[in-house]
Amino acid sequence: MAEADRWLWLGGSLLLGAVATRIGWWLWRSQKGQTRLSRFVHSAPFPILLQMARFLYYIGLPFAALVWGHDAVVGRLLGLKPLLALAAGPVPPADLAANWAGWARDTGWAVGLGLTAWAILAAGQWAARRTGSVPGRVAADASAWALLREAAFHEVHWAFYRNAPVVALGIYWGTWAGVGLVALEAVLNPWWRADLKDTEHGPGTLVRAGLAVLSASLYLETINLWLAVLVHWGVTWGLAAWTRNLRPQELQTTSRGHRQRS
């Protein structure tokens, strides 16, 4: 019964995401010029309502599956690794030492993979600048708290999508099957496909895909959701800082060179 519940929750999330994004895309494309819809999108409550809906989908749905799903989500495989030093009751010294050692090892992997990912993505932006392309802005104007929110949303969502495959296929193949499900959800999203073709949003979309691979790689080594959120946050914050610090004259020069070749 629990096995069926896992796939029902996962399938329901995929279906909900596909239907919601398709309806939103249809409404935006067919009624974009209508005053009422335009006013609503640009009204003050809209960003709050949008983030509330995203919170319910990215965080609320996995939480509901964990609490009320009758073992539809396995907390340990989700990456909810405990830190025994924060436990309310007494902890045997041997267990505490083993837990500290595990966290130290996980932190080492997180720092190593995070720095490697940031270096590769930053080098990609540098290479784009050298070839005359203007690199897209990867949430350069987003605040640190907004980047943390996005890190939590996506990491919990990705962990939820690999949970059922990991139970069915094992850690290794289940993790990459989860990445495949994330990719399927993205392909079914018309907003994602449009962003991929856009010169400004396309690089950010590719960065998000790279972060999904980073998340899977880190999961294989640590199975630690908390560190995954922090690494995701650190990489995106670092890329945002890198983008903000690009010298304006370099951007102007590369933009001018790109227009001349066009």
Task: Write up this protein.
By secondary structure, this protein is mostly helical. The protein has one domain. The C terminus is likely disordered.
Task: Describe the global form.
Answer: globular
Which secondary-structure class do the elements indicate?
Answer: mainly alpha
Reported for the largest beta sheet, the result is:
none
Let me know the number of strands. Answer: 0
What's the order of the H and E elements?
Answer: HHHHHHHHHHH
Mean pLDDT: 86
Radius of gyration: 21 Å
Query: Could you list the spans in which at least 5 consecutive residues all have pLDDT below 50?
Result: 257-262
Strand content: under 5%
**Helical coverage, percent range:** over 70%
Straight-line N-to-C gap: 59 Å
**Overall tally of domains:** 1
Compute the number of helices. Answer: 11
List its salient traits.
11 helices; 80% helix; 262 residues; disordered C terminus; 0% strand; mainly alpha
Helices and strands in order:
Elements: H1 2-31, H2 35-41, H3 45-68, H4 75-78, H5 93-130, H6 144-169, H7 171-187, H8 190-197, H9 202-222, H10 225-244, H11 248-261
Helix pairs in contact: 1-3, 1-6, 3-6, 5-9, 5-10, 6-7, 6-10, 7-9, 8-9
